[in-house]
Amino acid sequence: MGRQALLVEDDNAIATVIVAGLEAEGFAVAVRDSVAGRDQALSESAYDVMLTDVMLADGDGIDTLTQVRSAFPEMPIIILSAQNTLDTAVRATDGGAFEYFPKPFDLDEVVRAARQAAETRRSAALDSDEQQTGLPLIGRSQPMQDVYRLITRVLNNNLTVLVLGESGTGKELVAEAIHDLGNRKSGPFVPVNTAAIPRELIESELFGHEKGAFTGATARNIGKFEEANGGTLFLDEIGDMPAEAQTRLLRALQSGRIRRVGGNEEIDVDVRIVAATNRDLVPLISSGAFREDLYYRLNVVPIKLPPLRERRDDVEALARHFLQKAAQDGLPRRTLSKDAARLLEQQSWRGNVRELQNLVYRAALLARNDTIDAETIVGVLDDSASDSEPFHGAGQGNIAGIVAQWLETHSFRDGELYHAALGELEKPVFRYALERTAGNQLKAAQLLGINRNTLRKRLLELEIDPEEFTPG
Ligand SMILES: Nc1ncnc2c1ncn2[C@@H]1O[C@H](COP(=O)(O)OP(=O)(O)OP(=O)(O)O)[C@@H](O)[C@H]1O
């Protein structure tokens, strides 16, 4: 007895292609082009799998999925959608879809999914939780589609996720989305920025400590692991974790238990780990700075976020989103002209979405009219360009020349050179940013385009006192 598939699709061309693919795979396919036609077909025969479009002439193929699911809990459903938002992906999964394919899709993949679905026929209906609204991630470009698909695949399990991507690409936002939309949403979301915690405190911060574990441990302290029990622990900048903490983390991941610093008791913890890094971990493994076994433990489901310059299609939507946010934050309400949007799309966005966000806020503040036009953008871009040249006015020579000269006139012990030189470069940059923002670290971090915890930590290390820059 052959397998039966129901295809609900109102685009004839797409339907023809899918039918051909499914038939080649041994399916008998019934095609309907509306929600009503679908329901009629379902009432008349049984199907091993249903594939459905979202936007149909008489309704939304996802909104009514929950009913289909409860009437036919064993029939896997595959969603084919041209509305490529995370919202659609999540609504599809919440409605109990087996798989979600944004259009345009790869026919082979759809057919493969249909075959697998028919084989796995699920017995239980998935939770049909209330639909989520106000989803955080903006962008419908192809690279983001891949990200959304991966996100939906980890929502209802506890697999460890490693989010990779340059600074400002939205790694923390992805971690939050996984938590907020997943099966742990009623538990806590606990973010830890590994790079921002002094090395000697990191183990106690993560695992807690017992009273008297070290000088200054005047009371028992619960660590982030225990705090995240039942929820999600987001470990940001994982590449900066010191060796001892890595070993402890690996042990915790292997055993599902932790021990507080200075404690003997093993404590069970139920925590989903989402880790993130903007550094390439492979060279860190080769140089011995990152444990290979820990890398494999963390890298169960890698989600790579594309830099903004590789998804320019999303720039306009992001810019409009940030204008709305800016208005909610009390800035003047502005719109964006088409020319301005085109200009934004052409930028290189080395600071990624964070840089775009900062620029849009600045434009919202500085624009003279309700509409932000290309001219305003040029002005704001010029401003940021001079902000990123901390040495302007230093006169003769380029930065490389100045660095070379500085190196010539200093001596270093082994292992010191790189950090000493970078520190020298960072100092004037940070001082400049603090000067421009009157010592406001949050604004300085925004201007710099770096994480504010990273800034705080570096200021401590470089012995720069932000107070020095505050007025009065
Ligand atoms: N797809 C997106 N849609 C809307 N906002 C976004 C998106 N991606 C990033 N942002 C915003 O850009 C800013 C930077 O994002 P986030 O902090 O998640 O980046 P990150 O990759 O974790 O950066 P870092 O590595 O520097 O910590 C945040 O304000 C975030 O809300």
UniProtKB/TrEMBL annotation:
Keyword 4Fe-4S included in the entry's annotation: no
Compartment(s): Cytoplasm
GO MF annotation: an example: sequence-specific DNA binding
Residues of the Response regulatory domain: 4-118
Entries under InterPro entries matching the protein: AAA+_ATPase, AAA_lid_NorR, CheY-like_superfamily, Homeodomain-like_sf, HTH_Fis, P-loop_NTPase, Sig_transdc_resp-reg_receiver, Sigma_54_int
Phosphoprotein as UniProt keyword: yes
Gene Ontology annotations of biological process type: phosphorelay signal transduction system; regulation of DNA-templated transcription
Residue ranges of every copy of the Sigma-54 factor interaction domain listed in the record: 137-365
Matches recorded under PROSITE patterns: RESPONSE_REGULATORY, SIGMA54_INTERACT_1, SIGMA54_INTERACT_2, SIGMA54_INTERACT_4
Modified residues (4-aspartylphosphate): 53
Entry function: Member of the two-component regulatory system NtrB/NtrC, which controls expression of the nitrogen-regulated (ntr) genes in response to nitrogen limitation. Phosphorylated NtrC binds directly to DNA and stimulates the formation of open promoter-sigma54-RNA polymerase complexes.
Name the record gives this protein: DNA-binding transcriptional regulator NtrC
